[in-house]
Amino acid sequence: MPIPKWVYFVLVVATLPSVTGCHESIVEPGHASDQPKPSKAGIALDSARREQLGIQITAVTQRRLTRTQKRVGWFIAPPASETVIRSPVAGFVVSAKPQEWPRIGQVIQTESPLAQVNVFLTPQEVSQLVLAKEDNDIQMQQALVTMELSESQLKLVTTARDAVTGVRIDQLKEAYERSKAAYKEAQDKLPFLIQEPYDNGVLLKPLPVSSSANGRILQLHVSQGQFVQAGDPLWTVSDWTTLWLRVPVFAGELSQFLPSRSAMVELPGNSRPMLAEPLNIPSPVQPQTRMVDLLFSLPNPDWQIRVGQPAVVQLPASDEFDALVIPRSAVLYDGFGQAYCYAAETGGDVFQRRRIELGSAAEAGVAILKGLDADDVVVSTGAEQLAAEESKSELAVEDDD
Fold first, then answer.
1. Strand, helix or coil at 279?
2. How far is 228 from 86, CA to CA, in rounded Å?
3. Of all helices (H) and strands (E), which one includes residue 229?
4. Among 88-102, 155-169, 313-327, which range has the highest average pLDDT?
5. What phi and psi, each to the nearest 5 degrees, are found at residue 256?
6. What would the pLDDT profile of 37-89 be if each residue is shown by its tens digit?
7. What is the DSSP letter of 208?
8. How would residue 219 be classed by pLDDT, with cut points 50, 70 and 90?
9. Residue 395, CB half-sphere, CA atoms under 13 Å: how many?
């Protein structure tokens, strides 16, 4: 007996949910194990993953720090850090082959060749130089003639020694030595005089110009081929490898600070404060504003800081306080500029993000005003990698949703 068609229809409809359910439950093997496990308490990582990320933890310490007050300072160039290279003579400035024409920002060293000056002479100066050269040539010729005459007479005297007195012989020797000295003196002047012929257009050799200081070229005062007078500025070379920081404070508040202590400097865009050393240079009180400048020195080997740039300075005050301190490497900042760190939970397997409020910065680390307790442990190395892992876990949860 044949099976009715409606039976087939019932069987097909009954198997559809099971087939669809099997299709949705397929999971790629090993895909979930590559992601960190999100937790309500934070992000969990096994020991192998922590070692791979290079995560290290440090206990929060309690230290006695010097209280600081924030002020605004400006960077200035130290004295004698700017050198103006000037033309030694009047002439036309051209590049010295094979060197290229100096450019702004170029790093140069002391005695580095920059250009050359083709000396320009007026007709009066040319006449004076020609006259000096001719006078020197005449002096050489006269000395040479006297030397030859004295030498020939001395040779004759030696054959008739009994007929010539000793005084005459001494006079001839003296004349010979005098003319010899005059000839040598005239020869020594030749390198400093113009050379013949006088109509070749170049009476003096080009004069090279080199740098007298280390630094970078910040200003160009001439262009190639320009005529300059003696003493005209050619280039300005500045050395900003070390800058001074000028922090003005009111004269009445000067007793509140410790000018002999180092100060912490915070630059815009740089999350890590830098340490500035005091210069201990007495500064006068400005009569108009009643302000006194505190001066500090800060290394700037990569030239990231510019002269005139402002900075927030934490000046050490005269009192101290106890504070919780964590390393600077443990502090991170979110997109809104809020500081946070990662605290290790349950023996270092789970890491929780903690929003913190920073206090004054010191060489030992950063003081924490809120967000941590004395018995907490924070991630001191690998905090950036941990933040990336947390972002990956959040993206994985969003994809599952």
1. coil
2. 10
3. none
4. 88-102
5. -80, -15
6. 444 557 888 888 888 888 888 899 888 777 788 899 999 999 989 999 999 99
7. E
8. very high
9. 7
Q: Which residue's entry shows tokens 């180092």?
A: 262
d(CA 395, CA 144): 99
Q: Cα(202)–Cα(109) distance, rounded to whole angstroms?
A: 31
| Tokens 């030694």 found at | 88
Task: State how far the Cα of 50 lies from the Cα of 177, in Å rounded to an integer.
Answer: 93
CB 50 within 8 Å of CB 351: no
Cα–Cα distance for residue pair 242/301, rounded to 1 Å: 7
Give residues with Cβ within 8 angstroms of 204, minimum separation 6: 119, 121, 194
Local confidence band at 19 (pLDDT 50, 70, 90 cut-offs): very low
Q: Residues 6 or more apart from 313 whose CB is under 8 A from it?
A: 70, 71, 72, 73, 245, 247, 263, 264, 265, 266, 276, 296
Q: Which amino acid is at 386?
A: L
348: left (phi over 0), alpha (psi -120 to 50) or beta: left
The torsion angle over the Cα atoms of residues 167, 171, 172 and 173, rounded to 10 degrees, is 100
Distance CA 36, CA 349 (A): 11
| 3-state DSSP assignment of residue 77 | coil
* Range with top average pLDDT, 161-175, 230-244, 259-273: 230-244
As a whole number of angstroms, the distance between CA 29 and CA 394 comes to 21
Look up tokens 């508040």; give the residue: 253
Residue 345 has pLDDT above 50, yes or no: yes
Give the type of residue at 239. Answer: D
Q: How confident is the model at residue 227 (pLDDT cuts 50, 70, 90)?
A: very high
The token pair at 284 is 């006068």
Quick one: tokens of 315? 């000046």
Task: Report the C-alpha gap between 345 and 221 in whole angstroms.
Answer: 63
